[in-house]
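Dear all,

This email documents one entry for the complex benchmark we are building for the journal club exercise. For each entry we list the sequence lines for every component of the assembly. Then comes the predicted three-dimensional structure of the complex as a token string, followed by one or two observations. Please use this as the template for your own entries, and keep the labels exactly as they appear.
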Amino acid sequence: MRTSHDDKSEKRDKQDKSGDPSLLRRLNAAAALRVLRERAEITVPELAALIGVSRPTAQDLTAQLLREGRLVELEPGAGGVGRPARRFRFRAEAGHVLGVDVGAHKVLVLATDLLGRTVASHRLPVTPELSAARRLDAVRTAVARCLAGPAAAGLRPLATGVGTSGMVDPAGRVVTVSDSLPGWSGVDLSAALTGHAPGRVVVGNDIQLATLAEGTAGVAADTDDFLYLYVGNRLGIGLWLRGELHRGHHGAAGEMVAGDGWTVPYQRLLDWFAGHGGEARPTRENAARAVVRAAAAGDGGAAYTLRAFAHALADSLARHVAVLDPRAVVLGGGISRAGTLLSEPFAERLAALTPCPPEVRTSTLGEESTAIGAARLALDHVERPV
Amino acid sequence: MRTSHDDKSEKRDKQDKSGDPSLLRRLNAAAALRVLRERAEITVPELAALIGVSRPTAQDLTAQLLREGRLVELEPGAGGVGRPARRFRFRAEAGHVLGVDVGAHKVLVLATDLLGRTVASHRLPVTPELSAARRLDAVRTAVARCLAGPAAAGLRPLATGVGTSGMVDPAGRVVTVSDSLPGWSGVDLSAALTGHAPGRVVVGNDIQLATLAEGTAGVAADTDDFLYLYVGNRLGIGLWLRGELHRGHHGAAGEMVAGDGWTVPYQRLLDWFAGHGGEARPTRENAARAVVRAAAAGDGGAAYTLRAFAHALADSLARHVAVLDPRAVVLGGGISRAGTLLSEPFAERLAALTPCPPEVRTSTLGEESTAIGAARLALDHVERPV
């Protein structure tokens, strides 16, 4: 019996070396990279404990990642008794990605290292009226300028992520666009930029990518469940559920439809603006900016208007918060820069309307959120186990 | 060098037999049980291919599951050349669970085998006015009667799942209840039933459990993302996202708040009922039943009213569908039994309102959905790898 069992074990080992374990090895490598990215440095025993493998397995993994140039070995640490443990760090500079935000008013290109840290950027103003062909030209120009800048010397860009308003299909085509970008519906962004931007070009919806940025590098990076509310020229929702971006079955998650009454809150801002000598047809963001400025300067009427706007936003969002029960709501988009002038009355009203009020946080990523999310999308692509 | 590497391998094997692999083995066993539950019978090579392990590993797994009584070996199949392959099946009768639905009007108890197939049941009518103490008595009685019935002879119940309206905390306590069950808020269902129902008592929200039933045993068992709309005396939403029930950060996901306008659709039903000699203060379900009956019998006004109700439901749901972008919407609850009289106008209107219309399906689990989901909750508890 003993012998038969031993035979079986031997046979399994042989098989395991050829068949199954490649998947296991790739999963272990992916887990190791996840852990390594979050730490300044690590030893083999620490890695073993953190990803739950034996020390010899962790040793093999580090050797493999060193060979692949994903790790660097650090100088042995001083002090301690006996031979100092070998220490390693993730080689964030082993590759780079681009994150591109194609908007109505700007094209923003960021280059990041493998940790998602921005190392170079270029911003190119555009106008909402630009034709699709010219907008694509602007994207190609902005990418080229970002890569030609002094900060980009020595970069090894491996992939490009692109964020755009509108619904994006899995192939990277803009299916429909709710903002009024002329000719933008139907544009095959992935095809139009491949060859003009480094590596594979992956495309996502701008608000979904801003949500990805918040969940990985923003104020909600510690949170498994949050709802992102984009408050700019329109409202949009992003969902981060169980530690992942929720894209939806058709990739269209986050749309707010007419029945959601999302335009209602803005009316007060526009009315105030019109009553205070504002231009005839302001964008919603410009009207908001004027109200916020006046409220911050002590104008009581503007403060009241901003408060009413925040309450109306909460009214509009309460039903989604109640159904999803997230831990937090993150306010992003241009108007969220009003800070506590917006977030406090918003949180107050939300708490009155929902059975389990979430925390309310304000994004700190500013206008870079979509570009940061686009870079993360590209990183996900680079790091996906094949 | 060769020798040093071999030494390392040996060392790893030794370690792997004591440390890491227990998790891997448990994960493999869980994967094997999942595959086995979905098949009438299986051979070792089939199991190996389906869960992606080597044949010797699959052989070890089957041996282990046989020892634990989770598998039965079948008679060798006839025909074919050479020694017939050993065939196994999941031993569904190795254990049982109870699923209990505690409602305003009924207590329903189901006993199921480890495949979730109902083997015994007991239904005890109750009234909405019952005190909490008497409602708990009714639950204990219904459980005892179900287990005392002839169909329950030889059952080995291992755990009990309970569904109730209201928000349920992780300990099994009813935190708040929106239906008017007197004294029900604050009831510690898990504590009150432990010892009166078999095994560990796990508790969940009724609509969340109905959603679990649809996602595992109902019309959406093939679907990774769907939204369940409960249409009974009130509206409620259940979310099934990426193949799992979405409970929310506080376990409260699925609430429809006042701002959602969920009572609006019912008004037309109640108005029609009042205008056709119905009782003075009908439940919403009773009014709906009368409207459906009249519409099915060819009453044009009733058909119009039902259609308007379906449209108003779609108006109310469209915003959630747009934000979540699910593959399907499942209509459940008493009023969903109107079938296509409800689902067709509902689907039509939803398609007009949302950018990516989902399929619309009608539940076939009837009034058992919450009890079935409660049994699944208990099964999940029994089968969770320790």
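Observations: Confidence is low (pLDDT under 50) at residues 1-20 of chain A. Chain A is about 45% helix and 20% strand.
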